[in-house]
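Field reference: sequence -> structure
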Amino acid sequence: MRGVGRCLGELVGTLRRLWLLLLAAIVIAAAGAAVAQDLSADERARLEAKKAALFQEMLRNPANLDATFAYAEAAAKLGDNEAAVSAFERMLLFNPNLPRVDLELGTLYFRMGSFEIARSYFAKAAAANPSPEVRARIAEYLAEIARQAAPERLVGYVFFGAQYQSDANVAPGTALIHSPIGDVLLGNQFVKRADVNLFGTGSLLYSYDLGTQNRDMFEIGGTAFLNHYFQVGRLDLALAEVTAGPRLNFPEPLPGVRTASLKPYVILNEVGLGGNQYFYTAGAGFEETALILDDLRLKADFEFRQKTFSNASDRPLSTGLNGNDKLVALRLDKPVTANSELGVEFDFLDQQTHFAFYSNKAYAVGASYRLRYDDPTGYLELPWETSFYLGRVWAHYAAPDPCCNTSGNPDIFLTSDRNDRRWRFGIAQAFRVTADVAVVLQVQRDIVSSNLSLYAYTSNSVLVGPQIRF
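Structure field:
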């Protein structure tokens, strides 16, 4: 394995040089976005003045622990981790029994990558019998330290349960369609139909440390999904996907950027529908990540997928979907408070298919807000988590769709390019049973409007099940 690691390390060096310019360009753009979302000039000036005043107070009265703690908090908010660490450690000289300070020191050393020192402070904080929420936070940090310290890592999750959908077959609410041969009433199987399905999904990520100075990794990821409907069995879905590639790490590549990484990878997947092969994919992509000004996380992706479809008795024209997908995605996540986080995402998808009327370009924006809080019932003792999300998609198709007459006159057949609009919003609630197990309840609504009535629908869904992380 070490010989393989050396060979991969040489490959990583080559890839690092080839991709460094692209990485720098994306990180520069991310840094610009971070300035807009981080402290304003006025807020930063006020914090700097507060920090300076508190520093003078510490000089006048070194035993004033309240002033020292406030100074450390201000320094941490300004991104001056070293000053915050120094202040907190001075507090422990006056009073070594301060679990809150131990926790803050562990967090700061973790951010700076000093995992062994962070581990010692977390262990000291845990020994002071903290609240369940603090214990869970310490456990998460210790697990992450153990994960990052190991040369080989395997992480993942499993999620399974049941889901109800008011429009399981994604069909229009009306049976009347203006077709090329006149108005047609669709059969029952093509009209909106509610159903329940059982589902299971999971994801694995294996990482191997290549032994380089920046702790570059080689990663292999796997994702699987399987469901079964009680009534609409032709929509039973099975998916398996594998990605593989090196992750190159760049510590502090630019001022204000703590860490960044680049991962080129290959993609292979297989998808089944209704018990038959639906399509398979081969492709490649790359992923950029960056941590800007301590708490703004950026992720940028590009993927190219070549998709090859198979026909079946109930879908004899599936091969008309043969073609490729090109995806560009950008996501930003930033804490709002110590227990909440806001995320925004922007996507562009270009789908090219053999049938031109299925080729389309889609633009999407989305936002999410995640809130973590103490169990209000007191039964589970661990924190609950609520997530709100909202998304909007605009899809424009490349050629007139022969499915529908858009002239308004049944005697005149006229086709039009398809244009869809989609709203998606929902709430997900996680009830944590242990540090790694939660029961998840999700409620979601999709509203799709289209200039072609065949493609317009509204669906409500509810799913529930346990999620296990490891």
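Note: The two ends are 25 Å apart (CA to CA).
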